[in-house]
Amino acid sequence: MPLSIRQIHPTFVGEVTGVDLSKPLTPEAVAAIEAGMDRYAVLVFHTQLITDEQQMVFTRNFGAIEDARGGNVTKAEDKRLVVGMNDVSNLGKDGKPLSRDSRQRLFNIGNMLWHSDSSFRAIPAKYSLLSARVVNKTGGNTEFADMRAAYDVLDDATKHAIENLVCEHSLMYSRGSLGFLEYSDEEKAMFKPVRQRLVRTHPVTGRKSLYLSSHAGTILGMPVPEARMLLKDLTEHATQPQFVYIHRWSLHDLVIWDNRQTMHRVRRYDDTQPRDMRRTTVAGTAPTVAQEAAE
Question: The CATH number of the domain where 56 resides is what?
């Protein structure tokens, strides 16, 4: 059966069939998937029983794998996955759910906020690929918001007002909003704010989208309360039901999303039970704006 993509949401998201991600892909299949990402921004692949190495091989079809360092507070000796894999599970190195007061667990609760992966990096991520290895029985859906559709329906005055705005993003902003406030000097240096445009233009389609994230905490040239109110208003607008797809995970689903065109968040689940989700991230290739002012 040839590779095909069926749209499953009114504005975005495609369901892919006719491909086995455990095997090398033809150039034609890679091109079809990349074209699907440009069009749908999120692609869903069901029943993909893959290893970590196979996931990384598949990921490299779309660019270099992003260096995961600087994206969490997990110490090197506590990491359970190989280099190149991002652990977004609730599991410790022993394979058991993290304790309720685990610093790693509390930091990861921030994944329940609307965000775009790696917007806190000077060069933000292109794609994220998440593979469901153990699915939690209670909750744990992932929601995706179409930031292109949300931008399209803004009134002209708002589009004009935000066109050239630049935000500062940091993990300390998103985690700070949940009361996670204690960081080592090394972490503070690692999480130093970076600058990102508030409106992005897709390099292939030319389509504009809002570039929002819970990591955004300030807007250059704007008082902080005013900036955060604007960001809050835009986020509420962009995450209305008509712009959101809810993915209810089945075992061995793999979902790819374009961080330049979407936001996402995980929903609450029973984290006394295991949830093993493994992410690879395709690195971006250029900053959205010069970084000098954020140094």
Answer: 3.60.130.10
